Amino acid sequence: MAQSAPSHDDIHRRKTMDQRECDLMVRKHELFVLSRAGGQRANFAYRNLTGLNLACKNLQEADFTGAIMVECDLSGTDLTRALLFCVNLTKAKLVRANLTRADLRGACLKGADLTAAELFNADLREGQIFTKRMASDLESLRVDPDPSDMSRAKLVNANLTQANMSGSVAAMADFTDAILKGANLAKANLKNAVLEGADLEGADLSRSDLRGAVMRNANLYGAIFIAADRTGADETGALTDAPRGKPMSMLRDSLHTLIRDHQSWVESGGAAGKALDVSGFDLRDIEWPEHALLTSLKAAGACLAHARIKGAWLQASTFEGADLRGADFRAADLRGANLKGANLVRANFENSNLAPLVVASGRSLVVRFDRANLRHARFAGCQLVQASFREADLRWSSFVDCESAGADFELAIGRPAMSSPAAEPPPRPDAP
């Protein structure tokens, strides 16, 4: 991609902007966004903003074409639909910045920190500026030494859904747990990049260079790898189109019939029907009946990625070692369930009951998440009394308004701060 731009001198004599001048332009732009008097769209094109602080500003649709923004702080800044064509953002801080639909063609992001940044539908393709030397003569100009370069950039937890990164250079970049669903990475240089736990479902990686890339536990379901070089890539635990267990065709009947048989077995105390055991089966993307009676379900080692089991009765069920990434357990009753070693990345347990289950003998079965991968899992409004999270990976998981008395987090990685339900106000003292 190329863009016709100002004269050769305009680029090579980019005027340095100080913080005061920058702040004034930002204030006018924020008024412009709000359609208020005195507002004016910010134009930072071909200016030198090195090291300036633009954090937490509203710079939607601002023009930064060809600007030098080395080590700028843009953390939390709204850059929705901003024009960042051929900008030098080397080592810039863009943590949690909103770059939705931003034009980043030809931008240099080498060493930039885009942790948890929003890059939905952003354009990160190659780009180049042309300068006019004569009336009918255009000269290609590399504004900065490494255009379209994202080498060593940090994009942990970034959302790059449907982003266009075709032909981009992202060697050794860190995309850990990033969302790249439907992204265009055709012909991209991802050599030695870290894509551990990344969601690349439906992404186009045709002719990309993935030599030495780390894709452990990544979601590669539906991704396109035509002519891609994956020499030395680590795909341990990755979810691909290849079967992850026995196919559904090996079940003795349809899943809905088996669920009805299981319900009869539960309601009759084992006198009728038959218990459901899908251990080792590949049942990904299955939408289970809402509020299904699945008490004592056996699904050890099963692939149930993105399963929707909302509101199900799953007391004393076994999911040990199962792949449950992205599963929906909202409002489910999981008392006494065994989820040891399960992959529960981005699973949703909101309003679920994960308290102990008292069985006939009078003993209690606690919910076990020991050694489970619970990165980005959500536990809002859950009962977690005495639940065991020993050695579980809880990085970036969310625990809001949970009752967690007696919960065991020994040796857990990234134990989150608990947000307890609002306490009842103390009673008013009696009037004298």
Description of the structure:
- This protein has 432 residues and is mostly loops.
- It is built from 3 helices and 5 strands.
- The chain has helices at 8-12, 19-33, 255-267, and strands at residues 2-7, 128-134, 137-141, 357-358, 364-365.
- A 3-stranded mixed sheet has the order 1-2-3.
- It starts with a strand and ends in a 67-residue tail after the last strand.
- Residues 421-432 have low confidence and may be disordered.
Count all strands and give the number: 5
Largest sheet: 3 strands, mixed
User: What form results from the Cα inertia axes?
Assistant: elongated
Strand neighbour order, sheet with most strands = 1-2-3
* Head-to-tail CA distance between termini: 80 Å
Arithmetic mean pLDDT: 91
Unreliable runs: 421-432
Roughly what fraction of the amino acids lie in strands? Answer: 5-15%
Order of helices and strands: EHHEEHEE
SS summary, helix count: 3
Cα-based radius of gyration, to the nearest Å? 26 Å
- Content-based structural category: little secondary structure
Helix percent reads under 10%
List the topology elements.
Blueprint: E1 2-7, H1 8-12, H2 19-33, E2 128-134, E3 137-141, H3 255-267, E4 357-358, E5 364-365
Parallel strand pairs: 1-2
Antiparallel strand pairs: 2-3, 4-5
What are the main properties of this structure?
little secondary structure, disordered C terminus, 432 residues, 8% helix
Could you give a short description of this structure?
The chain has 432 residues and is mostly loops.
